């Protein structure tokens, strides 16, 4: 497949019981995902609890992940923020060794205008040493990147190669698919509607669920990309309840619970996030036994 087509996984960051990064578990997770057949990995996106890691911890996780992946699959670094100058400085200082692109969410909390979002990404594009994937996730940031702004950025900056689109807004998606440059990648950032987005012309997903079900989820996505939606639907339907549970009590708490059941890592999170309830953990365990 073409670059960044298929299934990318927004990796969790495993923690030891005392809250320190669990590098042994991170190594195990990376092996679990690559063996599961995913096309690429994303380090320290939202699912990686990047907001709770120090700059030094991020540097160490990025470096460790690159060494562990060892170019077996493509690797993307999550670098974002709501201070444009600081985000640009972080990108300029980033050691790109082993990485293929940067994923950057639009600014959170500030609620900039569309022109502010454009100027933020313009500054990133002009500074970035790697291709940039935009990330629109208004449920977390408070502001949506419009289709018009995305298309403008795609046309103005050749190193802005795609967008992880997690708005769930199909009116926006219709406009984006119609107006974007042909080679601009639209990647689902919302597991439950990845099949539908690929049917509209999306090229894949950056998945949370894929942490726990890399084989099942990546197989479904490949079927979608091959146009075999009948077979893909069967997989999609079998994972609906599991996918719901991944977000029912917050992410990545749900998928960390699943990974604990699978023996990949523990379910420790950093505050303000907490593990899922005992009831939810039991439901997740039950669903792991039935997904196909």
Automatic annotation (TrEMBL):
Q: Listed GO cellular component terms?
A: cytosol
Cite the position(s) of the site with description Part of a proton relay during catalysis: 46, 109
Going by the record, the broad EC class of this enzyme is lyase
> Matching SMART domains, A to Z?
DHDPS
Please name the InterPro entries in this protein's record: Aldolase_TIM, DapA, DapA-like, Schiff_base-form_aldolases_AS
Quote the pathway field. Amino-acid biosynthesis; L-lysine biosynthesis via DAP pathway; (S)-tetrahydrodipicolinate from L-aspartate: step 3/4
- Keyword Cytoplasm listed: yes
Q: What is its main location?
A: cytoplasm
Q: Where is the active site?
A: 135, 164
Q: Which GO terms describe its molecular function?
A: 4-hydroxy-tetrahydrodipicolinate synthase activity
Q: What reaction(s) does this enzyme catalyze?
A: L-aspartate 4-semialdehyde + pyruvate = (2S,4S)-4-hydroxy-2,3,4,5-tetrahydrodipicolinate + H2O + H(+)
Q: Which UniProt keywords apply?
A: Amino-acid biosynthesis, Cytoplasm, Diaminopimelate biosynthesis, Lyase, Lysine biosynthesis, Schiff base
Q: Where in the cell is it found?
A: Cytoplasm
A Gene Ontology annotation in the biological process aspect, one of them, is: lysine biosynthetic process via diaminopimelate
What positions does the entry give for pyruvate binding? Answer: 47, 206
The keyword Cytoplasm appears for this protein:
yes
Q: What is its EC number?
A: 4.3.3.7
As for what it does, the entry says: Catalyzes the condensation of (S)-aspartate-beta-semialdehyde [(S)-ASA] and pyruvate to 4-hydroxy-tetrahydrodipicolinate (HTPA).
Q: How does it assemble?
A: Homotetramer; dimer of dimers.
This chain belongs to which protein, by name?
4-hydroxy-tetrahydrodipicolinate synthase
The gene that this protein is the product of is dapA
